[in-house]
Model the fold of this input.
Amino acid sequence: MPARCTCYKSFSVVILSHIKIMSPNKTQQTYRRIFWITVTIITWLVATYIGWIGYTASHGTGHQWEPLRMPSHFYEFRVLGLWLARASTVVFGPSEVAYRLPSLLASLTIVASVAWFVNWPRIIDWKSQTAMLIACTLPLDAGLRSGIGVPCIAAGLLAAGTVCILKGGSGVRYAGAALLGLSFMTHEMSFFYIMIFCFTALAFEWRRFWKPVLVTVLISGGLFAIECVVYAILLNDPLARYHAAAEGIRIESNELFSVPGGSLLFYVWPIRILVFCKQWSFDLLLLVITGAFAWRRLNMDQKILLVTMFVLWFWLGYGTVLPWKYQPIHRGVHYYIPLTLGIASLLPYTLHLALAGRQRIAEGILVVLICFHVALLAASGTWGQNVDVSRELVRYANRNSTMRFLTDLRTLDEMQLANRFQRPQNVVAVEELNLEPSLDGQDPANGPALDRVTAQIDAILINHERTHGPDARLQSLVEKFGGDRIRISPVRYRLLFIPIVPLIGPRDFMIRSRGGEVILVRGHE
Done:
């Protein structure tokens, strides 16, 4: 009995001492984990706010509120992304946040995929945490996550599918294969990423990946066959979606060769964006360099992801659309959003391995890079400003409901978009007026017809953020009948330059929005 008591007391002392020693550490680790999770969430929100785009134009957005009809434009063929946006606006009401919610969730999916790949927050060290901060602030994603919808949604599916296949068990890998197939149906450019990733995985470990690759091919092929049957029945063209997309790419890619030195630009452009592209600052270039030095010490999953990222960059720069006829892919930076997964997941580790024994230098480089991301976001931001100006114009029109306003059709479309898809009743577009020349060839700008129109108009709304400038006819009316001017939407500057504008004065490159104004018609002041 005494021996048992002695053993019991000794065991109790050991346990209690262990608890006393471990409890502070466990508590400290918990607080540390909560702190870095909070920092990551705040960083993502701040980067999203700084790079916020919202509505860019009425095209593509207005389709959400029209009755279901057959697609007529290549954008409308990406039905999955459009349906998701429509469902979001039906559930949460018509707003920018609701319309961009699928893209924002896709961005969070990319961040979550990076977290899974680097085992965060289970393991929180400087490498995993900087990987998360890179994923939150990389301009390639942060600058587009609130803008163009469908490529972002496809990139989120690609990131989740990739990590499921690389990190998951057998069942999770098949789920990843389904996500890759779904991405192919979301945006046709996903085909190139899926092709590159599948071939890379088979080249490195075919025994491990042949089943999920086979499932990916079967799911993608099955969805493709269903789509072809549907379009063959409805549009009498089984490849309608791809014909529409190829036509858009052909027109846009031909613009590259229509400028002086176009052929040379085709070969130089991918190198130029590798070195100087602000969408990923120097991340991709640094990843390529450090990845080459650290190659032998990377694990198999990291090697597969690194090769996939580099080949994707190469293919999007020099790839083809039609295998039987060389035709360059349109150089759209939004096609590169899937690179976010590889850049964020790999760069801290390749930098650590390439600078072995120089951890402080590696940490410093990553801190500077993340700060550079935020600075680039703060120095950018012009997309969507035209709709922001139109929003302020429609607010002015609503407050002055007794007045009648004239504007151009694009601005009126954006005013309706910003007004929760409700057209202001006291605003008319100049394109809607009958200003055609008379039978005797008289210019209506000098004739009585225009005088009758201006007699019914109190003011003209001008959006200086028009992509192609104010409408020529509207400018003509301003010159002939314009009176006092009221600035409604002031000139706004990019966030990074706001502190220095009072010191050195405004410059064109600092302007984020040129604003808008109301011009009173003479006789109606």
In short: Residues 11-23, 436-449 have pLDDT under 50 and may be disordered. The CA atoms of residues 320 and 329 lie 6 Å apart.
